[in-house]
Amino acid sequence: MPESALSAAAALLLLAAPVPAGAAAPPSRYTITDLGADSGATGINNAGVVVGYRGAHAVKWASGTAVDLGTLPGGASSVANAINDAGQVAGTADRSPGGYGYPVRWSASGAITDLGGPLANRLGVANAVDGGGRIVGGQRPADSEGSPLATVYETDGTSRYLADPPDTLAAATGINALGHITTGNGYVVWDGGTLVKLPGLRYFDGDPVTAAAINVRDQATGSADIGDGVTHAVLWDARDVAEHGAPIGTDLGTVDGIAHSTGTALNAAGQVVGTADPMCQPCAAPKAWVWQPGGTATALDTLIPAGTGWQLQQATGINDLGQIVGRGLLGGHVHAFLLTPRFHANVSFQPATAAVPAGYAADTGAAYAAGRGWAADDSTWTRLRPAAGAPDQRYRTLIHTQHPTGANVWELAVPNGRYLVHVAAGDPGYTDSVYRIAVEGTLTVTGTPTTAHHFVEGTATVTVTDGRLTVSNAAGATNNKLNYIDVIGL
């Protein structure tokens, strides 16, 4: 194992109930859940299930219960690194006490599979898992020399290197629903296996770049050198880099003047979490942070209730509900944590008969009632499309928003305050639209789909003063279609 014993804690999804309009602003942005001592959380899915480690074993928390995922037969330690919405887990486990770690997969029921193959000493790691259970990570080559090389582990039990020659790519770190993969040495494996090098923050070839994760919108995060060996967290639009050769990413900075920061995870709304670490002794302790689109990185310690005693040091996962996991100190001891926004609402627009994505509530087009709905009933204009062309279930369903009239609007009851709102518009089967969608009068989605890109998405920060968040058709829209919306309180 790369570290001795890693075990994890996970957590039950906590949904924040709407607060009456006009209520006072909450004292903090997040509530915090202690997932236990001697533990660290590494990932979280949209169902709110968290994975990581506790002591020497991989652990997940589901439905309020901590579950020990165990080890390989004969092994002593394991760690869970990622979990998909189906409950499949990627991680690492040894085959004998004190031995090397090998990539493993846990099924949703908890059965463990050794992905490392028959050769001994080919140590490796499984870092990420897509919605279908395909895992990416890395292993040493057959001669057992050098560092792990980027590898994909298919669901049929086969595996393959991601590059030719294999040593082009360091171990893979992330995979999104489109099958696009990030690697530790700053590449994205693009459509058809094309390699896209993510640029640094300066116009210098050879600047060190790392990539840690990629979201469904092909935004990636990691870190890059800013000079004198100092690194900052970065957000890239990998699609722009691949298609237009965008020169640099967005420097997300750091917190409290700490020299080094790195982005470790991001969600569909474009929120990024990470860690700022001085990387020296004796120095200030590391600090976990979150970055909001259009904003700055903020230490998570400042966003939880005062007086909790927590020092949040590492943020390692975030889901599309805005929940964040990681590890910190509580009473001087290492504990895993889960942060849940005091308000979030995640809604899928779909026919009543369609499967509801994990973590989402279904809106089937009914007129406004009980805090959510349309100005005029739009239920006959929901659609379910075939899976082909849709990254996941959220993109298979939609509602036509300009029916029964172009003035139709959708509203959600929320406490007055500021919100980060992510909107996805599109149709996996058609490109006959011009998407223009406003949230609280702010144009949030604007674009025309193409055969290469059927979906147009956007994120905006808005302020609600009347107790209802309003989504409307913006001027110039043609055949507007809405897939889903994420609303996260700030």
UniProtKB/TrEMBL annotation:
<keyword id="KW-0732">Signal</keyword>
<dbReference type="InterPro" id="IPR008979">
    <property type="entry name" value="Galactose-bd-like_sf"/>
</dbReference>
<dbReference type="InterPro" id="IPR014262">
    <property type="entry name" value="HAF_rpt"/>
</dbReference>
<protein>
    <recommendedName>
        <fullName>HAF family extracellular repeat protein</fullName>
    </recommendedName>
</protein>
<feature type="signal peptide">
    <location>
        <begin position="1"/>
        <end position="23"/>
    </location>
</feature>
